[in-house]
Amino acid sequence: MSDLLGVAVLGAGHMGADHIRRLDRVVSGARVVAVADPDTARAKEAAAGVDGVTVHADTEAALDAHGVQAVFVASPGPAHEEALLAAFARGLPVLCEKPMVPDPAGALRVVEAEARLGRRLAQIGFMRRYDSEYARLKALLDSGRLGRPLMLHCTHRNVSSPPGFTSAMLMDSSVSHEIDAARWLLGEELTAVRVVRPRPSGGAPAGLADPQFVLFETEGGALVDVEVFVNCGFGYQVRCEAVCEAGSARIGEDHGVRVAHAGADTTGIPQDYLVRFADAYDREVQAWVDATRHGRVTGPSAWDGYAASVAAEAGVRSLETGQRVTVEPGEPPALYRA
Amino acid sequence: MSDLLGVAVLGAGHMGADHIRRLDRVVSGARVVAVADPDTARAKEAAAGVDGVTVHADTEAALDAHGVQAVFVASPGPAHEEALLAAFARGLPVLCEKPMVPDPAGALRVVEAEARLGRRLAQIGFMRRYDSEYARLKALLDSGRLGRPLMLHCTHRNVSSPPGFTSAMLMDSSVSHEIDAARWLLGEELTAVRVVRPRPSGGAPAGLADPQFVLFETEGGALVDVEVFVNCGFGYQVRCEAVCEAGSARIGEDHGVRVAHAGADTTGIPQDYLVRFADAYDREVQAWVDATRHGRVTGPSAWDGYAASVAAEAGVRSLETGQRVTVEPGEPPALYRA
Amino acid sequence: MSDLLGVAVLGAGHMGADHIRRLDRVVSGARVVAVADPDTARAKEAAAGVDGVTVHADTEAALDAHGVQAVFVASPGPAHEEALLAAFARGLPVLCEKPMVPDPAGALRVVEAEARLGRRLAQIGFMRRYDSEYARLKALLDSGRLGRPLMLHCTHRNVSSPPGFTSAMLMDSSVSHEIDAARWLLGEELTAVRVVRPRPSGGAPAGLADPQFVLFETEGGALVDVEVFVNCGFGYQVRCEAVCEAGSARIGEDHGVRVAHAGADTTGIPQDYLVRFADAYDREVQAWVDATRHGRVTGPSAWDGYAASVAAEAGVRSLETGQRVTVEPGEPPALYRA
Amino acid sequence: MSDLLGVAVLGAGHMGADHIRRLDRVVSGARVVAVADPDTARAKEAAAGVDGVTVHADTEAALDAHGVQAVFVASPGPAHEEALLAAFARGLPVLCEKPMVPDPAGALRVVEAEARLGRRLAQIGFMRRYDSEYARLKALLDSGRLGRPLMLHCTHRNVSSPPGFTSAMLMDSSVSHEIDAARWLLGEELTAVRVVRPRPSGGAPAGLADPQFVLFETEGGALVDVEVFVNCGFGYQVRCEAVCEAGSARIGEDHGVRVAHAGADTTGIPQDYLVRFADAYDREVQAWVDATRHGRVTGPSAWDGYAASVAAEAGVRSLETGQRVTVEPGEPPALYRA
Which InterPro entries does this one have (chains A, B, C, D) (predicted)? Predict the structure, then answer.
């Protein structure tokens, strides 16, 4: 594949800037061709260093910029409906950050507009579906190995909430991730919800109902409980335990899927290095490409390669003789010293 | 950045093919312009789908192909010396898989050739330095928070060894990773080695000295022990515990750095979602770019966005009223029914 | 202390027999002097081997038996009220298995009777207060180090329920442990409860509401949720996470208290061997006492002591010389050959 | 069983005093009838509160005291040989703390004396054999489920060493535990040892070779490596990993046996409450016996029993009605208010 996908990014705030960096430097196959933000100074800053990008104050102008083939909506929630409809009008595929549209009426208008088009253009940014642990939990539940899921126990904790965070936003902004994850993991729609408020934490701003405890019911009779606590103070924790008829599986603790089943509490062990070190390989090669494009050489050097070879050969001799063998690489040439 | 780095990949075996895929589809900023392998059928297969690539039986021809700006050496070890020297002769930067050159004499010739150039062109594929756990362990040791390292206890286990694996290859091929990791983590050269053979496992091929127990000494008096066991049968495990004057840190178990220090056994908790879900974001956006370039739409749909919005709004009403509230998104349009 | 406490045990079923064994062989300072059970054959079997014990069909007779100084009530719940009142009438201290009295009216009569005595005679068998993890969690909460507790997330799972287990018994018999633990850990009374039924597990007997999800509120506004699942199939799990204003602490997983606090997930490390191996010392000495009383000698032998001494001395020589030193204990005398 | 075993305890230092307490208050079936220590003040202090005990300066006098049926040797190592021979001369069973006799020649004299008796009288205090984790590891190895053991990786760490601790004592006093554990776990004699010294820790006293790394070989070709580090600073850690032909098992981390086998990393889950809470039951009943013998009543009260019953009944009503039900125990009588 050689042509890069031309993307317009709407919104150049914290998330938008991070996605611009990602499209430009991490992800293969795309390039950012337009950035829009009412605050054009912010847009310019986020677009700095991106080759051939244009900057706009206005959504429509960005969508109509030269080379735009797809849209990434990273603007604040209230601006999403207009952006999605504008993309639909142009037939442009969209990746839209969550919440798709904060109010259900507006969200329904987006659904109806896309349904009228008769084909899907929008992907919504529920990125947990792309997390490796969630993906493995989903596969495990779908396999039926643990029987039907009966309950999901979820935890969603943040160190502290940003200024202006309201009691409703614990639901809108935080629990909405668990809402999507529960629908996806269980393959069932939610049918009822009940929120219980424990006493508010002294660590939360006055007036904020934090933590909250939320209980969802599903069409099939499963139960989803969510502790949401956005001023827990100690860390960011997203955990999920699926309690099934024949076992329970947990994610979100030490990065792995731990399964309790048939008398054992178990985590998988990878079976080869491509699994265990897949990220390391990606990072290694990306680092090499980045350095090379800047005319630099970094990383392990030929001296490192040589030194390893000397030590390994000494090891083989010790293996053969049973003796202690000295390792003598000599002095490195000046090129390799610090 | 817009111009993609043109890479010639030498070797189209298991590793080579994986690196071609990585350069083409995962890593940002590079493209594969030439592939060389004496087995050109294999080279063609590995290059299939890569736009504008040329395929060669011969290393020199590949390096001289149009657009080659850098070289990725993924051929068998004995071919590395020639490939590195050929790249040096053309002034091309190289990423060379380990072992750089299997025999120390050849490795030294590479070092000397690069030293004569007076600038570094080669990076060696000791990819553990790019693993996030190793990187965090290195940073922790460098911080001095645990005092000086005194010992490294290393484990390197494979499920089973490939055909033709020899007793010497446990050192050359497997322990060479620990050799580089130890030199890098400790910042010290190795000075002696001693290999002890426990009784061979009944699970290893007859005649193979597996497992082996290897003890390295460093110039500063640290001790590095390595259990290498390439037919352990149960999984791929790479662990490392650094025992320091004021604490010990372990990696390779459940993906995290566990630190024993001052009466506590501790793992870190990420402090925000960008840390915890960085990979998920990368994967999400890559999946979107890939699908969009193929004219497909996948992932969470607008209906998912709408359903989340309906459930969240019901949650807010329950929060406000203290009552159970039903969640009623209605029926999805046909477009969204699987 | 020399005089042993004379105990009458009421009830010789599964629990009663286990407590008789415990009083006779494990616990220091007590002896069983009377056992009562309507099924006297069962009582005799449970009392077998206990020196000087008398067996009775009737509670009153057992309480009046020679040497009775205290009472252990291990009969079925419905018999507890009468047993407690009979013990109170005689001024005998009682340890009464839970539930103290299954119906609240009867329980209140026991409370009123003891209040009329003006002094406490009864201890109720909520043995979780004596579990080392619960005790450490209680101490941690009382220390205030994590701020006020806001929520307790509890799990109570059994492999399978015994025949005749009813939906109400998940509350009466199982959750009653969490009820006491919550009151004790929080130091607050419970003020409301709500039970939600997820779909029943296919692994539970037809008609049994299993699992159940129970939400308690406390007088101070804390929330206690309990998953009770008595046919989970995979094991016996009792977990409790206390979510506090400044941290969370969990017990019931791999035997330890894991604390999330200030960016770290932490378990304690014991500071000396008396802590780590306290149970081993107790078991060692008990095993020796038991064997000696039966005229037997078991455990590590003098030969083991000698062999250790030979190996240690060889180690010291290797330490001093830096050489490999052989360990040569010679052949053990016939006495020590198994 | 009614007659208590009369024990003479030799040595009233730290260990001796702890064993006197254990025999008197923890272990069932024994009583301390004599205590000997050259420092009779210390002996008196350790014996305080033990009913009917006599105190002696002299070993022989203690062994000949009235009621002595068995001997517990807890004096310093150099005094053990004489104590053991004196016990043998009287035909008294002995539990002797490790090291049995520090020097191999003396140890052999003890072995020969017992062999002449033709029956075993001595049990040596290698108490790790009584640790539940070691016991489970031993059972696992003996089961053959993981194939033959090939290597033991052992760690033995103390926070800090006591004054006067010498380099040789890391072997004599610390590693002697691993020596016995390895012989017992593997069922093989040790045949050679090699000690390697890493650079000494700055946290160790000047001149002390701490840490040390010890490699034992066994008659069957297994390898046992031991890191001994008596000034590690952060905690007391005793770990052991048995690497076998078909799996590896570890103990000493978070109190459990973790097994890596067939693609999974597994710990057991207890199958019932008697396993999970065995210690809690023992502690509960011991606490009740102790309090009762002192005329006190402690632990959960009748009010606690009543309150649990009220809450459970409310739970049952909520289960039946699906409604929130208030829990109203009323006010406790004065007797139960702290």
Answer: Gfo-Idh-MocA_inositol_DH, Gfo/Idh/MocA-like_OxRdtase_N, GFO_IDH_MocA-like_dom, MI/DCI_dehydrogenase, NAD(P)-bd_dom_sf
Which has the closest alpha carbon to B130: A279, A50, D283, D66?
A279
Torsion-angle region of C118 (φ positive above 0: left; ψ -120 to 50: alpha; else: beta):
left
Q: What DSSP assignment string belongs to A171-192? A: IIIIIHHHHHHHHHHHT--EEE
How far apart are the C-alpha atoms of B212 and B197, rounded to whole Å? 5
Which two three-digit tokens encode residue B75?
């051929």
CB–CB of C271 and B263 under 8 A? yes
Contacts of C290 in chain D (CB under 8 A): 29
- Asked if B266 and C271 come within 8 Å (Cβ–Cβ), the reply is no
Measure the CA–CA gap between D212 and D223, rounded to whole angstroms. Answer: 16
- Note whether B181 and B240 are within 8 A (CB): yes
Q: pLDDT class for C1, splitting at 50, 70, 90?
A: very low
Q: What's the CA gap between D110 and D326, in Å, rounded? A: 72
Edge-to-edge strands, sheet with D70-73? D54-56, D30-36, D5-10, D70-73, D94-96, D122-124
The pLDDT value recorded for residue D1 is 37
Check residue A277 and report its DSSP letter: T
Taking the C-alpha atoms of residue D309 and residue B316, their distance in angstroms, rounded to an integer, is 35
DSSP H or E segment with residue D112: helix D104-117
- Which chain A residues are closer than 8 Å to C263 by Cβ? 234-235
The pLDDT of residue B2? 44
**Residues A168, A177 contacting (CB under 8 angstroms):** no
Sequence ranges of the domains in chain C = 5-125, 129-268, 278-336
Cross-chain CB nearest to B271 (options C260, C263, C265): C263
Q: Which of C13, C175, C159, C156 is nearest to D272 (CA)?
A: C159
Q: In terms of Cα–Cα distance, which of C310, C326, C328 is closest to D107?
A: C310
Q: What confidence tens digit (pLDDT) does each residue in C33-90 have?
A: 999 999 999 999 999 989 899 999 999 999 999 999 989 999 998 999 999 999 999 9
CB A104 within 8 A of CB A76: no
Q: Over chain C, what HEC string results?
A: CCCCEEEEEECCCHHHHHHHHHHHHHCCCEEEEEEECCCHHHHHHHHCCCCCCEEECCHHHHHCCCCCCEEEECCCHHHHHHHHHHHHHHCCCEEECCCCCCCHHHHHHHHHHHHHHCCCCEEECCHHHHCHHHHHHHHHHHHCCCCCEEEEEEEEECCCCCCCCCHHHHHHHHHHHHHHHHHHHHCCCEEEEEEECCCCCCCCCCCCCCCEEEEEEECCCCEEEEEEECCCCCCCEEEEEEEECCEEEEECCCCCCEEEECCEEEEECCCCHHHHCHHHHHHHHHHHHHHHHCCCCCCCCHHHHHHHHHHHHHHHHHHHHCCCEECCCCCCCHHHCC
Give the whole-angstrom CA distance, residue D293 versus residue C316.
51
Asked, colleague to colleague, whether D5-125 and D129-268 share their fold, the answer is no
pTM above 0.90, yes or no: no
Which of A260, A266, A271 minimises the CB distance to D265? A266
CATH number of A129-268: 3.30.360.10
- Regions in chain A scoring below 70 on pLDDT: 1-2, 254-283, 286-287, 290, 293-294, 308-309, 312, 317, 338
Confidence of residue B311 (pLDDT cuts 50, 70, 90): confident
Assigned token pair, B256:
């995290």
Residue C312's contacts (CB-CB under 8 Å, 6 or more residues apart) are D99, D171, D172, D175, D176, D179
Whether the per-residue pLDDT at D54 is higher than 90: the answer is yes
8 Å CB contact between C128 and C177: yes
Tell me which architecture the domain covering B5-125 has in CATH: 3-Layer(aba) Sandwich (3.40)
D271 chain-A contacts, CB cut-off 8 A: 263
